[in-house]
Specification:
Length: 399
Amino acid sequence: MEKQESIGFVEICLRILNNDLKHFKFVTAVVLIPTIIAFVMVMWVVKPKYAASAIVTPPASTQPMSGMLSGLMGSSGMSSLLGISMDNEDVNAVWTILNSWELHNMVIDKFNLAKHYKFKGKFHADLLKEFRKNFGLELNKEDMLSIYYKDTDAKLAVEVLNFMLDKADSSFNAFKTKQARQSREYFQSRLDSCEHALDSLLKDFVDFQVKNNVYEPNVQLEATIKYLSELQAMREEVNMEMNFEKLDRGENSKRYQELSKRMKGMNSALGGALKGKHSNIGMIELKKSPELYAEYLRREAEIRIQEAMYKVLRQQSEQMRLEEAKTLTNLHVLEPPWENDKKISPKRGLILAFTVFFSFFLATLLSNLVEYMRSESRTNSKTAAEWDFFVKKVCFWHK
């Protein structure tokens, strides 16, 4: 039995080319007809599309104000208790506005895009879908908003983008104004409550000071201790003189009697100072001084906390008032859209190259299939029988 020789790559390529040459007219027709149709379509039938784009800066962050508030409060936890948010969600708000169906409907109505697109559908959602195929929004590498719109009319694409940017800025201003108004009303209510609490604390604090004659505990306590120390020193000095006078002249001497009266006066003054009888001139009773001092510090700390809260709420309320009245532009266009007459689609060269390649591949496949079946028919193989059966069933005119 003879050994079958293996077929090399070059021989396979030559067989394929020879089979194409055997059916040269067929291959030429299969390649030329789709290519001509594609050429006519991309040149005269399919309208080219143009793209207009713009680069927009996101809204200014509110983080500096929030950071200042955190510093004033001494911690971020206190600002959260007041309802102050530290996150900036303005970029997300602008993103949502630009992708909203309300804005897209405004564009469709403004430029009559249903007629421009020659839209014949029954559902408005399909028209929105058609518009969104041509509209795009993304963040570039510099974290700027990149907006583009594609259309068969380059001038219309520019007008659509300008309209959308203007309406988005107006909508964002309205959103921020409403948000600022709600925040201002909230902070104003908190401010009124804090002011009322502060007034009440101050009144109670003044009453406490007047009732207990405590105005500056540190100074008063220091003065009281100094006064008692001086009295005690003088008392010890008089006591020493009395003892000396008693030993020298006895208890009946005139000097001893005078010293005794001075001692009684000093004891009376010392006892009165210890019992707080001189509180009207700023002296503090030592037994009650720890309790009074602790109460004084507690009330003073409460007032300081309320004052800090009042200061923060007042600044935030003013900030919200300014935000509510602000009518400045929030979306600053760094790169405005311009009428770019360079088409982005269809890609004529790419389409024609793909059409030629695919048509030639299909023609080659069919030519080699026909030649293979012919070779199988000469040997009366099962493959040829199956092919003949298939041809008879598909081609009813073939007998």
